[in-house]
Structures are given as C-alpha cells and as structure tokens.
Specification:
By secondary structure, the chain is of the alpha/beta class. Helices cover about 30% and strands about 25% of the residues.
Length: about 325
C-alpha cells in the first residue's frame, strides 16, 4: 500500500502530517493521522494516579536538592538552610543535623515495541500490529498529559530508539516511529524483544515508566532475569496483543493456505484444540502467573478492544 507525504521528524520545521487517509488503512496498517487523533482518548483518561513510586507526572531524581520529598538527614554544615534542621535527630545525637530532599525532574515514559511477525495478523476490526501502534499512541499522549518525557524503542534494526523528549513534539516523534515500525513486518535479522528490554534496562533511570507492547510468544521467550532487571527500578506494564480467534477458536474445520499449499485444521478434535491452546493461550497464562511476582503489571488487549481499554485496571471487552 503506497504512502504519500512520508512524515519526517528531523530538523526544526513544523512537524508535517502524512496525507495517508485514516480510513484507507482499514485496520491493516497504522496511519499517523489516526494515531494523532487518539489524543482525545488520553485527555479523557483518569486523573494522574499514585503508583508504588509516587505521583504520576514528576519523578524523584537521583540528585539531592530542593525538591519536596524527604531524602535523608546529615550533619549541618555552614550555609545549610536553618529552616531544614532536623530537630529531633539533632536532640537525639547531640549534633545539629539538616534534612535533604529529592530534587524533581520530568519522568521518562518509554514505549517498547515488539515487532514480531505474529503481530501482523487480525480477524476482527484491525491487525494486532495496528492495535499495538494505537495503544502506544494512547500511552504517549497520556505521558504528555502527566508531564512526562516520552521515548520509544523498537526491538529490530528499524531506526531503533526515539530519545526522550517533552511536549507535543516528543509525542509526535514517537507516533511517527510507531507508524513506521508497525507498517510491515521487520526484515530478517530482527534482534528480538529481549534485546530491546536489555537496552531499556540500561537506558532508564530509577522512577521511569515502561510500557511493553508485545505478542505473548515474544514476551514468554524473554529470560525471567531480563524482566527482573528492568522492573527493579522501573514501573513496567506489559500489554499482550491478541486476536479473538487466538483466544476462542471456532469449533469447526478451518481451511488454511500455507506456503506448502492448502490444508485443513480440524479444531473440533481434542488434539488440535490442545495444541492451539498451548500455542496461544498457555503463554498468556504463564506470563500472567509469573510476571506480577516480578512487579510487572500484565494486561491483555484484543484487536477488537478499545485502544485505551488498558488504561483501566482491567481490559473491558466490547469497545471499538
């Protein structure tokens, strides 16, 4: 499918919008105007929430400074603000101590995009890849609403990393990348989701947020130690992209076209359904059972769900 007016994010010129018609994609490939229009979903979302590492929007930095959150007390030195003297500790130790506070800086929200070939498939409403791009766009707009700098990271060699940037321009850079990454399956030699998560763990500072958009099989293939390393200092949410057919296959014989010719899959037979469940359902159950123990929130988003349904505590079916 041809795309005219290819968007660019380089230079200082105003960010151009592709003239790719929103309706022309028809759920097969994401269009940049479609992702931009999703800003309305983030604007009607929940108010900034308090997570286990504080209030969404501003994150505690590693540096000590004049922030609002208490960090530690140390002995008073000449020049310290007398208003911050820790009187209780000073009385207890016999030496004057002063309180120090965490300085504040904009938090980084990173979107990690799995581009496994299994995502470029769908039977209802849109491809899983398009749903991934749309969910990532909702996340980017939500990060802007919360005052975060937004970044994106792809698991393949497709232009790789969108550095953290604040404001609308930062969001548009991420949306442009999502539209490109999910336009077609990656070429051979894709480095895989695990490599992207390892890079994310190296790049992100404590207090950052990461939304991982992934096919269940890709996420299950990631070593548990990699998940643990990422979630040690970062709030991680894993969004598993699925299709209704994968979760609830019909109880019938399906004709299929394969590179080796046509075949029939008898989903009415017990062995076939067991193999189907092992391929599509078991990875989801394994991830939902293991990753929450590693402080990772796992949610499932179907291709026919509302693209912002994951913002709630649980995905609710039936939206478009």
């Amino acid at each position: 499918m041809a795309v005219s007016g290819e968007p660019s994010v380089h230079g200082e010129a105003p960010f151009p919008v592709s003239d790719f018609p929103v309706s022309a994609a028809n759920g097969l490939v994401p269009a940049l105007p479609e992702l931009i229009a999703l800003r309305r979903l983030a604007s009607r979302g929940n108010d900034p929430r308090r997570g286990r590492r504080g209030v969404v929007g501003r994150a505690a930095a590693v540096q000590r400074g004049r922030g609002m959150e208490y960090a530690e007390s140390r002995e008073y030195v000449a020049g310290d603000d007398a208003r911050h003297i820790d009187w209780k500790l000073s009385a207890r130790t016999g030496f004057t101590h002063t309180k120090t506070f965490q300085s504040e800086r904009e938090r980084v929200s990173l979107i990690v995009a799995d581009t496994a070939p299994a995502l470029y498939f769908g039977t209802r409403v849109r491809f899983k890849s398009v749903q991934a791009a749309r969910a990532g766009a909702v996340a980017a707009w939500s990060a802007l609403r919360d005052g975060d700098r937004v970044a994106a990271l792809c698991d393949g060699g497709q232009g790789g990393l969108v550095p953290p940037t604040g404001g609308t321009r930062g969001v548009l850079r991420v949306l442009d990348a999502l539209a490109r990454w999910y336009r077609a399956p990656p070429p051979a030699g894709d480095s895989g989701l695990q490599a992207a998560l390892e890079q994310a763990a190296r790049l992100l500072h404590p207090g950052a947020r990461a939304l991982v958009l992934a096919d269940p099989a890709s996420a299950l293939a990631v070593a548990p130690a990699v998940w643990s390393a990422l979630s040690m200092h970062v709030d991680v949410r894993l969004l598993l992209l699925v299709d209704p057919l994968e979760l609830e296959p019909p109880d019938c014989v399906l004709p299929l076209s394969t590179p080796h010719g046509r075949m029939q899959l008898d989903l009415a037979s017990t062995p076939a359904r067991e193999a189907w469940d092992a391929a599509f359902v078991a990875p989801i159950e394994a991830l939902c059972g293991s990753l929450p123990g590693r402080r990772i929130q796992v949610q499932v988003l179907s291709s026919d769900d509302a693209s912002d349904a994951w913002l709630a505590a649980g995905v609710q079916r039936g939206g478009r």
